[in-house]
Specification:
Keywords: Coiled coil. This protein has 135 residues and is mainly alpha-helical. Helices cover 92% and strands 0% of the residues.
Length: 135
């Protein structure tokens, strides 16, 4: 849109801009070149500001992504801790079940031994009785 400064033919939208420039030049006493330079400075400042806005938006997106990653990491840590606690609880339960089974087996073995001893004692009693009867 700055065709006016190059001296080329201006497109239709630039014609009204050129007319506005000439009116401004006549009313303020500022030269056309100074006005164009001033407008170029404003355009550069706008571009710089837009770039800063874009960079700030990128930084915000990056911060949001980082925050999301941190939250995911914290969630993973909590899940790992929960898993470890469940695993430890399962292990404790398994150990308790093994202890209960071991106690039952020992009781059963003890009962069997007592029965065996009782049978041996009865057998011995019978043998002694037979010996006594034979004599």
């Amino acid at each position: 849109e700055r065709c006016v400064s190059s001296g080329g033919t201006a497109p239709s939208g630039a014609l009204s801009l050129q007319a506005d420039l000439e009116v401004h030049v006549l009313s303020t006493g500022v030269s056309k070149e100074e006005l164009i330079q001033s407008m170029d400075r404003v355009d550069r400042e706008i571009a710089r500001t837009e770039l800063q806005i874009t960079n700030l938006k990128r930084k915000q997106v990056n911060r949001n992504l980082l925050l999301e990653l941190e939250l995911e990491w914290e969630l993973e840590q909590e899940l790992e801790l929960e898993f470890e606690l469940e695993w430890e609880l399962d292990l404790e339960l398994e150990q308790e079940l093994e202890l209960q089974l071991e106690r039952k087996l020992k009781q059963e073995l003890k009962r069997e031994l007592e029965q065996e001893l009782e049978l041996k004692w009865e057998l011995k009693q019978e043998q002694e009785l037979e010996l006594d009867l034979e004599q």
